Amino acid sequence: MFKTLDDIGSGKRVLVRLDLNSPVEDGIVKDNRRFARHARTVRELVEAGHRVVVMAHQGRPGRDSFVSLDQHADLLAEYVETPVAFVDDICGEAAIDAIRSLDAGEVLLLENVRMCDDELPEKPPEEHADSEFVRTLAPEFDCYVDDAYSAAHRSHASLVGFPLVLPSYAGRVMQAEYEANTSIANREFDGPVTMVLGGAKATDVIDVMSALDDEIDHYLLGGIVGELFLRAAGYDVGYDVGDGELYDHQWENNEARIRDLLAERGNRILLPVDLAYETDDGERAEIPVEGVEKTQPLLDVGSQTVERYADVIEESAAVFVKGALGVFEDERFADGTVGLLEAIATTDCFSVIGGGDTSRAIELYGLDEEYFSHVSIAGGAYVRALTGQSLPAVEVMAQDDC
Ligand code: 3PG
Ligand code: MG
User: Which of 38, 69, 188, 298 is least enclosed by beta carbons within 10 angstroms?
Assistant: First the structure.
């Protein structure tokens, strides 16, 4: 499919694109699994005696999370266990000087690549390859490594421009994510394939369901999308409560598709039979879906639902998770999400856990990543891969014939 780190050799000048895009709170960049994952690729490059220059992005212009990468350098250094120098420039004189003064085995991180005007326009690879940014940096390197799978759905200069002008290789994260996330489309499983679908982005989930059909034997629904399907099935569930805005507009945008899916695949779609809410005393309580009233805020699936879903998982050969079943950040409402993850962890099936937040539940509740075949660090790219869409940055790597 693409060449990997095994094919580079040693002692080269390597430009590597990582995805270190992280949550930022009050200007502080939060540590997260992207640093640990990408550190493996960087460490391998260091050990092979390459000069390693890292490109990455953070936030978008206009957002609070659009900050410098100086803090990222320190976080990355901890995981790579080697110093990571930082230069607050991308392709100007300061950056070129810093790149040229690197020694073998040294690592340099360039400034937030989205601070360069050439980066962000969504353009075809050929146009990006011809940008001043790519034309200035490329001659400083022998090859390009793309490890930023989770940004591969963006046709940005740092992702699609360089593979046209430099020999290109997939990093370890790119390799692992590509293989796991495309397995619905590319692999045969010896038994039922199940999808656990939840989270707050109902439209994404419905896109996934619409794009897949015969590949999936069971859909287990929770979160906002689970409630919207219950609404379609005639329950008083899935309505905005108070001044909330999560349900009604997603319902309006997707009602027809939800009704069609339920009519055509109702026998394969399992919906929650009970849900959890917060009592006046701040406790978790559960209620069968028949008993819910439109005015009741719901925060998780109930224990009967978890039991039913766990039975399906035990019979599955493969399970793909996209989105959480409840508001797991609050310990009282984590039972659904964590219960399902535990069922997957203890079943001998091929399993992929994705959708940014869901993988955070693994961390938060001390589940071991080793129990899953793959825990994705991608959001938008994961959804597109599940639905069989190609990703511009992956496509251009696969075509590489430099
Ligand atoms: C992400 O964190 O989702 C990726 O890095 C892509 O970032 P973007 O959604 O701002 O393009
Ligand atoms: Mg995103």
Answer: 188
Q: Which atom of ligand 1 is nearest to the CA of 154?
A: 11
- In this predicted structure, what is the pLDDT of residue 400? 55
> Is the pLDDT assigned to residue 355 strictly greater than 80?
no
> Ligand 1: which residues within 6 Å by Cβ?
19, 21, 60, 150-151, 154, 379-380
In the predicted structure, residue 283 carries a pLDDT above the cut 90: yes
- Of 271, 266, 186, 188, the closest CA to residue 225 belongs to 271
> Which residues belong to the annotated binding site for (2R)-3-phosphoglycerate?
34, 114, 154
Q: Mean of the per-residue pLDDT values for the chain?
A: 95
Q: Name, in order, each residue with C-beta under 8 angstroms of 55's C-beta and a sequence gap of 6 or more.
A: 15, 16, 17, 18, 90, 110, 113, 158
In ligand 1, which atom is closest to the CA atom of 60? 10
Structure tokens at 77: 């250094």
Q: Ligand 2: distance of its center to the CA of 134 in Å?
A: 24
Provide mean pLDDT across the span 105-124: 98
Q: According to the model, what pLDDT value does residue 80 have?
A: 98
Q: What is the largest CA-CA distance in the chain?
A: 69
Residue whose CA is at the smallest distance from ligand 1 atom 10: 59
Please, what is the Cα angle at 216 between 211 and 219, to 5 degrees?
95
Pinpoint the residues of the chain covered by CATH 3.40.50.1260: 5-174+391-395, 182-371
Confidence at residue 89, expressed as pLDDT on a 0 to 100 scale: 98
CA of 150 to the centre of ligand 2 (A): 8
Kindly identify the ligand whose nearest atom is closest to the C-alpha of 377. 1
Distance, CA of 178 to CA of 182 (rounded, Å):
6
Quote the CATH superfamily of domain 5-174+391-395.
Phosphoglycerate kinase, N-terminal domain (3.40.50.1260)
For domain 182-371, is the CATH number 3.40.50.720?
Answer: no
- For residue 347, the CA-to-ligand 1 centroid distance in Å is 32
Residue 225 three-state SS: helix
